[in-house]
Every structure is written in structure tokens, then in C-alpha cells.
Give the backbone structure.
Amino acid sequence: MSANILELHELRKAYPIRKGLLGRTVNHVRAVDGVDIRLAPSRTLGLVGESGSGKSTLGRLALRLVDSTSGRVVFDGADITHLTGARLRRLRREMQMVFQDPYSSLDPMATVGSSVAEPLRTHGYATGARRQERVVELLEMVGLRPSHRLRYPQELSGGQLQRVAIARALAFQPKLLVLDEPVSALDVSTQADVINLLTDLQAEQQVAYLFIAHDLAVVRHVSHDIAVMYLGRVVEYGPAEEVYTRPKHPYTQGLLSAIPLADPVAQRARKRIPLRGEIPSPARPPAGCRFHTRCPYVMDMCKTVEPEAYVTADGTTVHCHLHKHGAALAGRSVVDLPFPRRRDPADAISGANS
Amino acid sequence: MNGARAASGAEGGKPKPGSGRSANPFLRALRRFVRHKAAMIGFAWIVVIMVVGIFAPLIATHDPAAQLAEPFEGPSTAHFLGTDDLGRDVFSRLVYASQVALRASFQIVGMALVVSLVLGLVSGYAGKSVDYVTMRVVDGMSSFPPLVFAIAIAAVLGPGLGNAMLAISVIFIPGLTRLIRGQTLAVKEETFIEASRAIGTKAATILWRRVLPNLASPLIVQVSVLLGAALLAEASLSFIGLGVQPPDASWGQMLRRSYDFIFNHPWHMLAPGIAIVLAVLAWNLVGDGLRDSMGHRSVRAPRKVRKGARLGVTSVRRDEPAAGAPNPAALLSVRDLRISFATESGPVTVVDGVSFDVAPGEVVGLVGESGSGKSMTSLGIMRLIPTPPGWISGGSVTFMGKDLLSLSAAELRRVRGKDLSMIYQDPMSSLNPAFTIGNQLVETLTLHTDLRGKHAWNRAAELLDMVGIADPRVRLKQYPHELSGGMRQRVVIAQALACQPKLLIADEPTTALDVTIQAEILDLLRSLRRDLDMSMIFVTHDLGVVADICDRVIVLYAGQIVEQAPVDELFRSPRHPYSKALLKAMPQVAGAGERLFAIPGVVPLPAEFPSGCRFGPRCAERLPECGDQPIHLGGIPLLNEVRCLRAEQLKEAQLG
């Protein structure tokens, strides 16, 4: 028995870009580029970042739905990086996934009951009446009625469908659930419902969650730890409250300040940390610190030297030069820095060292 | 068991119109098929042919091979359809031949289907080299003209019905394989297939239980059409002597024999000819019927609405005129707007008496959950709801002094895109993938302004620059797919602003974007509004976005306005329990480690709107009398109003 349910070691995934008649590989999209992560039993790790940061690929790598290019996936103490065939299939009972779009993650031609029974069927859990009993049990566990098993997906609301997907994922009391943007397709009012359900289920079932989302406000509520991804790398990784209230990386700060406040007066008064431009292509990640092209605090060294991991007193690991150089934050939050002046594009090119 | 959890999850399913019946997709298609008149006629005819074929020995009056009478006798009581060149009874031969026709077509299509299913499913699902090899073989097969190919195969194998069937089924394989492979590729991309893989289900089981049922509808349609084609192909091969051999009868072979005597006895071709035509027609009718009943069938709107409906313009059939007069000082004045939809169980009203004003330069937010009617309201103002199934059933929309609901399609086109513009959630849906960004911007400019040629292009570049796109000249030459999501939304905004609209309606313009990009787009819209002195209607389910950009908020629930207030006031002291609940549900609001607040239940379907307070069943502050009768808006009309019996009471409770 290992202390962690999931460990990712130096995990990488590169997709080849092929061109021309012969399909020659001209370059690679480095979707995940060296990620180390640990998740303890019954805990939740929130994984945030913009689209293109590699967070969804990371979730699929962890479940071995996608094969990694290098690195190791350790599940419950066993290295599963190269597991195949029947042994990998058997393992699927213990690690499951819930997808973003509840409307397409259930077969429209099958009843809800049949979808929930799929894992039971696949892994030979009982038969006939006993299996149906388990389906009903699972539906009730996620707050649905037994009669819902006879319905078709198009008869249910988004929130209800997501409950069905959760019930299906929990069929064998898995130890790990990867939740890929499980609430971002839902109305705000329904989001809370599903999140509360997930919190309750974690307490009941002792399941660990890898919660992937782009919305930090939601992630904060479900997570014990948060990992912030940017261009295939984790740039900040620490206790949820620390990351949310005292971000150590300018990117995290940028993501946080993009969330509109629920107060128009405060929102108008707020100074937003400008995260200019869009995430660069993972096929051509910038040299040095990958975030330097958008960073409001960029220094000269950021453009050439890759930042090393800096571990702060509160247990946050951050990859940013600001902690040792320049402002030398030494583990303090970037919110302590003076507000960066808005650079015009010309400045960015000449690289004013503020 | 957590009581609250059970209540909120199980409450109010989403029974579709016409509920009470099974929603099994196949049963639903079957019900529609049975109601499809033309298809049932075709189906009945096929049943007739089947019955005749099966009971041929009982129905035929004579031995089909026996030479009983003089050649070419006319119809008589002894020989209903006369005799052929050898004096055999034509009616009996026709009857026996129907057996051959149906059996042959079923066997041909059956063989082709089995082979194509294996090839198509495996090649589509496995992909890579398996797919490559299979598809090149199939390409090779289909590069011959089909009938010539079949003749060649039949000639090699030698004459006879069995060989002819084999030859024909071979020519069906390429088309059918392509169809199955294409559908498999599409279904394979669905999330539920990935879900099955994540569960650990074996590939064969996924193909059988998940992929196959989902490609069944197009396949069934194709099979019914192929059955007709097979029948025709078998007749053709028999006609040229490669199929059924004498003395056995087949329709094609009968046609062939009478063809030899076409000048002396032309009427002789009629019987087998008609039999073939009717059978093929019947299969095609069945195919059409299947296609209609398996697809999404549009619901028929009431006759008065259907009449005169124009593409791209919502029909207006006002049952009641607007009660309120428009506000002359407002840029947009909506009064008692009602929007109805035709459903399988009759018309429903999705927007029910919505009134509001938008002042020049003002940003108004329309908020609510899905099903609240916020998008319908905004589309209704633009008259962009397709008729059928939707139409405007009441009220008035006055924009710059004109009633938009009285304008003709041509007059409306002059307003839309010029003074009144709209942007949507999915920028890709408003951009044409086949044209460059420049083409599309210039087209809008040519349509509404005097700018032409170089001037239009210059203006287009200016517009891109205005929405913060770097290198506008380069971007103008690019296609939509070459831009990122945030960039596309900027292009769409540039297009909407091309003619400096007075009012921009933005329907969830940032919902599909990352929060960082959302923040930038909101900044952009805020600065554009200031620079261009433009009004906006901002439709969103995210109150955070409302706080960021709106001056005034309209909260909609179940097709009605439940609260309207200046933005600061709504956030500081919301008066309607629904507004309060929406605010409380924002994840930003809850403290660390706190349980998030969820509104129990879901927005009811329009057919099931409660007669009393529509929010009543989900309301925490509900009293028994809330359900008695419809609740009216109270407060200062159009400025600060609330639809709640307890508004005053709750306000005092809050203060006290």
C-alpha cells in the first residue's frame, strides 16, 4: 500500500505533426511536457489552466487512455505505465472518468440503466436482477430515482445526466476519479449541485479526485491542492487556499484576476493584472520561462533561463524567477508586488526590466 | 441518504412533449413510420409481393413451366394475363417470379451487408493501416462501372441465379462499406465511446453495443433503398441471360423473352415491366418513409403561422396588441413581447409579456438559467427565430421609432447588421469557413455602406485594429479556422461593429472562452461602448459577467421578467428570491470550505409553467398563496420592479 493513489513522474506526451505526402514528422506538439504530481487517497487535486495548457491530456495520461511518450504513471503503488490488455482493463474498475459534456457522454440509443450497467457488464458483476439492484443503488447514491434507469438521455437535464455519468463511474467504488471539466457545461445553479454531490460522495466512498477545470473559483471549492498548468508544465502547485488567496506565480495571479467579482462596485474599482495575448502554440513553446511572453513582470533572464522549482514555506512549488531574482519574493505571493505598469507592445519587444 | 441531494436531483425530469410513450428511439421512429402514408403504401405492396411469393403454389393457376396453350394468347378467364411465346401462363410465371425477386434482393443485400459491416466497422474503428488497406481495396472496386463489374463477375462465375446474386452483392459492398465506415468514424468521436473505453469495455463489445445502434438509422434507410436496387440489378442480369435460367421464371428474364417479340406483341412486356417498376417504387417509398421517421421531424406550426412564413425572418401573428406604449426617449422599447413555439403537443409560450427599455449608451443584462427565455427574447427582437416552429404572438418592439415587428423582410434586412447587430456564443457559427476574414468583413460593408474596393478593405483593417487584432492586413487574408477562439470572437465583434450599430445584442459572447480571454473581450466591449456610444443587450447566465459590464439587469425566469434593477442595486439588495438564489449560487461568493448553494430543481418546460408564481415550486420563501394566481410585476415599471408577492415583506425582514 502506497501513501499516494496516483503519482505522475516526469510525464510527457508529444503528438507528432506530420506533413507532406510521406507523413514525415516535422515537429511535435508537446501537450504535456514533464509533469510531476502526487494525489493521496480521498483527496482532490484541482488542475487548472487555459485551453491548450495540456490539462485534459494529463487526465487521460493518468488513466492510461492515452499512452505517454516518457515518464511513469504509478497507481496505488504499482507502475502502470506499460500495462496492457486484460490487466489494464481490470484496473479500469478502480480508476474512472467523468467527462465535460454530459449530453454526449451517454449513448443516446441506450437507456440510462443500460449505460450505468455497462461497467458491471464489462467486468462481470453479477447478472440479471442482482445487477439491476446495483444499478438502482448507484442511481439512488447520486440522488436519482430508480425509475430513471428506464429513461433515455434526451429526457434528462444536463445536471441529471452528469449524475448518471458519476453513477456509472462509481460502479466499482474506484479509488480515483478523473473529472474533466465536469460542471463547465452546466448552469451556475446546477454546478453547485453537482459539486456538492461530488464532495459528499468523496466522504462516503473514499475516492480521490483529479478535478480538471478552467474555473479557479470552482476548483478552489473542491480541491485540497491545486496545480496550475501552462503550456504542458505545472507552474504552481500547492495547497488550494494558498494558491487561491496568495498566488506565487504571475500566471496564477492573472487567472485569478480574470474571474469577475460578484460585486459591480468592487469590480469597477479593481485593477486587473493584464494577461495580454493568448497562450502560444505548444508546438513552439517560448524559450526560457514559457510564460515570459505574457508575463507582466518579465525580466531579461526569463527569456533565456528556465526557472527552477522553488518550494515555499507553505509547501507550494512554484516555477518563477521572481522568487530568487529581481523582486526576490522568496516564497511571498506575487500580490505583494507593486502593480505592474501596462507595457505597450514595443516595450515587450525591447524587454523593459521593471 | 442525503435528503437535499435526492430532492434536487430527482425533481422534475424533462419529459418531452408527447410523453407517456416510450422514448426508445427505434420505437419512436416506428410510430412515425406507421403514420407515414406513402411509406405504408410501399410497405403494403412489398407485403403483397411477399405473400404472393410465399403462397405461389396456391395462388398460381397453372404450372409456370408447363406449355399449356397456344403462344401469345390474349387475357382470358383461363389465363388472366394470356400466355407467352411458349404458351405458358404469364400470370402464374409472374407469381412464381415474385418469389425469386424478393428472395434474390434479400440475399444480395444480406450478403453485402454482412461483409460491409465487418469491413466498415473494423476499418472505421481500428483506423491506421487496417483502414488504409481496406479503403484502397474498396476504392479499386468502385472504380469500375457497377453493372459492368457485376456482368464481368457473373460471366466468370457462369450463369445462374446464385452466381448473379453473388456478383450483385459484390458491387454493393464498396458503397455500403464507405457508409458504415464514415458513420463509424463519426460515432467513434463521440464522448460516450471514450467513456466505454475508460470503463474497460472490449472493442468488439463497443462496436456491437455502442457503435452499431448509433449507425442503424442511416444504415436501415440505405438498406431499404438497396433492396430496390438489388431487385433491379437481378432483373437486369436475368434480362441479359446471366441470372435466372429457363425454365425458371424471373421478371427480368420474362422481360427479355417478350423483348424478342416487341414488334409483334408489344403489350407482352407490360406485365413483367410493371411488376418491376412497382416493386422498386415500393422499396423507395419505404426508404423515404424511414428517412423521414428516423430524422428529426419538424413540428407543424398552426396554419395561420405557416402561411406567409419567410426564411430568416420570424413571423409575427399578434393575438394581442401591446398594452403599453413605447417609450419615445428609449433607443429600444420592448412591450409585452410574447414568443410562441409549436410542439408535438400544441403551441407553448416561451416568452410571456416581456417589457423593457434600452436607453442610448446603456448596457442591459438579460440573465437567467437555461430555459428562462433570455436567448429567445434577444433572438425575438432581431426576429431571428425560425418560423416554424417559433413565432411572435404578441407585443411590440420599437427600435429608433420603428416597430420591428411590422417591417417586411427587406426592410428588416436594412436594419439588421447596420443599426442593430448581434454576436453569438459560438463565433464559428457566424463566420463562413469558406471565405477569408477580409471577404466577410468587406461583404458586410458593401451591403450597408457606400464603401467599395480598396476603401472597404482599409475600413476592414481599421475594424480589426479597433478590436485589438495585431497585423490586421495579414489577418484579413486568413480563414476563420486559422484563428483561435478568442481571435474569432474579436472578428465577429468587428463584423458586428462594421456599420457602427446603435445597439449590439451579445448572446453569451464569452461563455465558450477561457476566463482570461473573457476578461479581454469584456474589456474590449467596455471600451468600444465608451468610444462608439453604443447600447448593448448582454445575454448571459453568469452574474459575474453582468457585474463587470452592465448598467441595468433584467432577471428572467420561465419566460417572464422577475426582477429589473440597476446593477449595483441588484447585487447589493436583490429583491426577488430567484435573483437572490442566482447570486448565492456563484462559486466566487461562497467562502473557503463552505458548501456551495444550489437552487433545487430545474426550470420547468413551457408546457408546465405553474399557474401561480412560476418560481414558486423552487422558492425558499414560498407561501401557500403564491400558487393561487399569476403574480404581477410591482415597483417602478421598467426601472426597478419585482414579481413577488412577498417583495416588501422580505425587504423589511432583511432590514429589520
